[in-house]
Amino acid sequence: MHELHAEDLSLSAIARELGVAKSTVSRWAKEDNLSFDRSQTADAVAAKSIDLAAGRQRLAEKMLAASEAMLDRIDDPYLVYNFGGKDNDYKEHELESAPVEVRRNVITTAAITFDKLSRIVERDPDVSGAQSVVQSLEAGILAAADILRAPETEITEEA
């Protein structure tokens, strides 16, 4: 074990190499006053934490976009349909806007999204998470504005 430890192998690697449990290697190391460099473990934990935070950020942005899209369409015409009858006929009808229960679900979804995003901001005292969401939204809006302005520019240049 001393030779493997001298090669800077991790506790797990030594246990695998010797075919014993990690607890056994840990006990032997303690008995021999040997310690393991945990900087790689700390780096791995930090990297995983950053990856998870980035994942939460992406999910928050998707939740926000989905909620906004639903709210934007809440007053649009709403198609209702049904299969039924002895011939299993398909029938549809377009309503002027979504029914009350659908509107309630959309508003509840938006409220839950708002609550979850607010918790992210509260948990992050420097609000970098919120700033990132806002910056992403700003970038998206600016990109959309650029796309919408492009035809105007082309027409002006041709004239």
Question: Topology of this structure?
Answer:
Layout: H1 2-6, H2 11-18, H3 22-31, H4 39-73, E1 78-84, E2 89-95, H5 100-123, H6 128-158
Protein name: Helix-turn-helix domain-containing protein
Pfam families: HTH_38
Domain Transposase IS30-like HTH: 3-27
Order of helical and strand elements: HHHHEEHH
Largest sheet: 2 strands, antiparallel
Query: What structural class do you assign from the helix and strand content?
Result: mainly alpha
Low-confidence stretches: none
Which word captures the global form? elongated
Cα end-to-end separation: 82 Å
What is Rg?
29 Å
Count of discrete alpha- or pi-helical segments spanning 4 or more residues: 6
Organism: Leucobacter viscericola
Protein name: Helix-turn-helix domain-containing protein
Domain Transposase IS30-like HTH: 3-27
Pfam family, one: HTH_38
Describe, in short, the structure shown:
This protein is mainly alpha-helical and 159 residues long. Helix content is 71%, strand content 9%.
Describe what you observe in this structure.
This protein is mostly helical. The chain has a domain at 55-158. It has six helices and two strands, in the order ααααββαα. The protein has helices spanning 2-6, 11-18, 22-31, 39-73, 100-123, 128-158, and strands at residues 78-84, 89-95. The model has no long low-confidence stretch (mean pLDDT 81).
